[in-house]
Write a structure and sequence with these properties.
Structural class: alpha+beta
Radius of gyration: 27 Å
Number of strands: 13
Strand order of the largest sheet: 2-6-7-1-5-4-3
Helix content: 25-40%
Distance between the termini: 29 Å
Shape: elongated
Length: 413
């Protein structure tokens, strides 16, 4: 597995200016190659023509054609993709990347960019102990951000062995940002076929709500559309806000899995969920703006680096029945169950996902797994206060835990 390491590039003013010119020429070469490849011209002919017409070295023009092919493969729109920001993607041999200082990860990178100019040397300053010299040719990217030239290099990492514990996490993802991810943590006893829920967390709590700006940005986009202009920068801002929010949710989930030593995180298999024409308009909009894929994507690799694996379960009826009493759950009202202090519908759905995931791992029918919960009394006198147990039942109430809410959900800090 590889991660991307970014660092600052320093060199003389002449060398930096030459690198900026090469990035602009590379951008033009990529856009030209996209047009020719989309018109049906063969890849070999495009490489040959660009190698003769462009002032860049042949290796760079070949890399530009390969990048153009990748852009055409990954685009889903009918319009031809265009590279808008200048950058430079190339493949370097290990002899072109020399480590000057291993402690501070200072690298000397030799580049031959133009046919008529000589080779230049650039120094890349990476975070301490973040870079190891690659044993084979490495793809690196130069780009500009806020007036500074940066470089991105891949680094191979060794992953820890997968955890072998009987602690699991079920996550219910929602379109509402305030309840974007609800996590239920449970311990499974395979001999007694008993799943005990120990914690329920709302991962969206205590996150800076940049997502609160999205409705105003959407209103601004509508105004710009009515005026006939292009609201491209507002769309880009919404995308950045969503990615930042998804990263924070995923980081919280990975940290939670590490703290509780969980071996698996279970998600609903919602890959095929798309806006349907038969749904009301507001539901279609909600489904299209859901960031569930981003959260799962980021959570998978963040948890995998800590030894926690992820798995998908069937989403059928996970939010329709209570996992404790098996009664139907109302969509609009909280579900009060005599067997648990958890009554938030999203939290009950997370418990159902957890139960189904455990059944999948142990290859048994989920109906055979008994679900219980550790008894505790949420603070305050709200709706989370458990009912009086029946005669003969034992219920040792615990003191309120830090971060508990009246709905029975906790908020990790």
């Amino acid at each position: 597995m590889y991660i991307t390491v970014k660092g600052k590039v320093k060199a003389s003013q002449a060398a930096i200016q030459e690198l900026r010119e090469a990035m602009i020429q590379y951008k033009q070469a990529v856009n030209t190659a996209v047009k020719l490849l989309a018109a049906g011209v063969e890849k070999g002919k495009v490489k040959k023509w660009l190698g003769q017409a462009s002032p860049l070295m042949r290796t760079l023009t070949d890399a530009a054609v390969d990048y153009a092919r990748q852009m055409l493969k990954t685009t889903h729109s009918k319009e031809k993709p265009t590279l808008k920001k200048p950058l430079l993607k190339l493949k370097l041999r290990p002899s072109k990347i020399i480590t000057l200082n291993s402690e501070n990860s200072v690298l000397a990178i030799a580049l031959h960019l133009f046919k008529e100019k000589s080779e230049q040397c650039y120094h890349a300053y990476l975070p301490a102990n973040k870079y190891i010299k690659p044993p084979k040719p490495t793809r690196i990217t130069f780009f500009e951000k806020r007036g500074k030239i940066l470089v991105a290099l891949p680094k191979a990492i060794t992953l820890p062995e997968p955890k072998q514990t009987n602690i699991y996490i079920g996550v219910d993802l929602n379109a509402n940002f305030r309840h974007a991810a609800i996590a239920a943590i449970g311990v499974y006893d395979p001999e007694a076929k008993k799943l005990t829920i120990t914690h329920v967390y709302n991962l969206a709590d205590h996150i800076k709500y940049g997502v609160a700006k999205i409705p105003k940005l959407n209103e601004k986009i509508s105004e710009i559309h009515r005026s006939g202009n292009n609201p491209r920068k507002y769309y880009a801002k919404i995308t950045r806000i969503k990615k930042d929010f998804a990263h924070k949710i995923a980081a919280k989930l990975a940290k939670l899995a590490e703290q509780h030593n969980a071996s698996y995180i279970f998600f609903e298999d919602l890959k095929t969920l798309k806006p349907s024409k038969h749904e009301p308009k507001h539901l279609r909009k909600t489904t299209s703006k859901w960031i569930r894929k981003l959260i799962i994507k980021y959570a998978r690799y963040k948890a995998y680096q800590k030894g926690t694996r992820t798995a998908y379960v069937n989403p059928a009826e996970t939010s329709k029945r209570c996992p404790f009493c098996r009664k139907k759950i109302s969509k609009d009202e909280p579900h009060y169950c005599q067997y648990t202090w958890i009554h938030a519908n999203h939290a009950l759905a997370a418990v159902n996902i957890l139960r189904r995931g455990v059944a999948k791992i142990y290859k048994i029918n989920e109906d055979k797994i008994a679900v219980t919960v550790t008894p505790r009394c949420p603070r305050g006198g709200g709706v989370g206060v458990p009912r009086i147990p029946e005669a003969g039942a034992q219920c040792a109430m615990k003191a309120p835990q830090r971060g508990a809410s009246a709905s029975g959900m906790q908020t990790p800090r």
